[in-house]
Amino acid sequence: MRKEFANVVRNVVGVVLNLLCGLLVSSPALAQNQAPPPSRSDAAATAPIKSDNTGAAVDPKTYVIGAQDVLMIKVWREMDFSGPYTVRPDGKISMPLVGDVQASGLTPERLGEQLKQALSNFINSPDVTVSLQTVGSKKFYITGEVNRAGEYTLATPTKVFDALSNAGGFRDFANRKKIIIIRGTQRIKFNYQDILKGKSLEQNIFLENGDTIVVP
Fold first, then answer.
1. CATH of 139-215 given 3.10.560.10, 3.20.20.140, 2.60.40.10, 3.30.930.10
2. Model-level pTM?
3. How far apart (Å, rounded) are the C-alpha atoms in residues 25 and 18?
4. What is the pLDDT of residue 60?
């Protein structure tokens, strides 16, 4: 009889302990402390988005806008006019009320002045800011024995040595002494090894839109 009573007591104690454990686990404070780590998708959703050609470091006083560039135009307190504008192949953008405006060939600063003047017909003392969001008009290319061959944006003045350094390094059998820059009908020689030694620095020229660097 005593043995059966002890078993009953033991079972009751076990049930009570299980209930207490369940209450502790389900409590808000503990659940907050034991929340599972975010999944990869959650982490990706909250991580900052990076861009390699968003108009950082572009001087609005000197950069010349071209077709396929994406401009960010902000008109203070006028959301209908503010937003991204892509420069069309004809070099123009279209703005509500204003219509077509020539953008290609102008600097962002100069375009901002023209838009301010045009919007003055519809807005009292408009405050206009133009910045470059994405470079699409100026590009160069790297091909051959490099780790990251392909198309690169020419958002800021870039020399050949710097461009090659950003291409992920050379492959094993790359001939670093006989690199060629193709510029239209020109074939410009470039010796990477000389630059490393501080020799013939004049060959480290600035790249131009459409240049192709060939690493044999």
1. 3.10.560.10
2. 0.64
3. 11
4. 86
